Amino acid sequence: MPRDKRDVEAGLESKGFQKVEGDHHYYVYWSAGGKKSMAKTKTSRGFGRDISDDLLSKMAHQCGVTKPNFLKLVDCPLQRPDYEDLLKQAGKL
Questions:
Q1: Does pLDDT of 46 surpass 90?
Q2: What total number of domains does the chain contain?
Q3: DSSP reduced 3-state for 60
Q4: What is the CA radius of gyration of the chain?
Q5: CATH number at residue 41
Q6: 3-state DSSP call for residue 11?
Q7: Residue 69 burial by CB count (10 A; 0-12/13-18/19+): exposed, middle or buried?
Q8: C-alpha span between 16 and 39 (Å, rounded)
Q9: In terms of residue numbers, what domain contains 67?
Q10: Closest by alpha carbon to 62, among 45, 41, 42, 81?
Q11: Above pLDDT 70, what percent of the chain?
Q12: If we measure between CA atoms, which residue out of 75, 6, 3, 1 comes closest to residue 47?
């Protein structure tokens, strides 16, 4: 099911992703301890409001988790310490 771009971006920022402006909105994850990870993704600066299921899957892969875990991350049931554990298991932190 598609997600509103603003909700996804807000969810990422609330979990420790830092937004970097460019030709897209880039999001890079920094751990609670201040360590930059390999987890990163981007969203379009365009006017579209929804992110399709296909793009959500790609964003999940870029962030080092499965799509269900990515949706939990942006919807807030997956907390930051749990996400960091998943990143460590995937070798991205």
A1: no
A2: 1
A3: helix
A4: 12
A5: 3.30.920.30
A6: helix
A7: middle
A8: 11
A9: 3-90
A10: 41
A11: 100
A12: 6
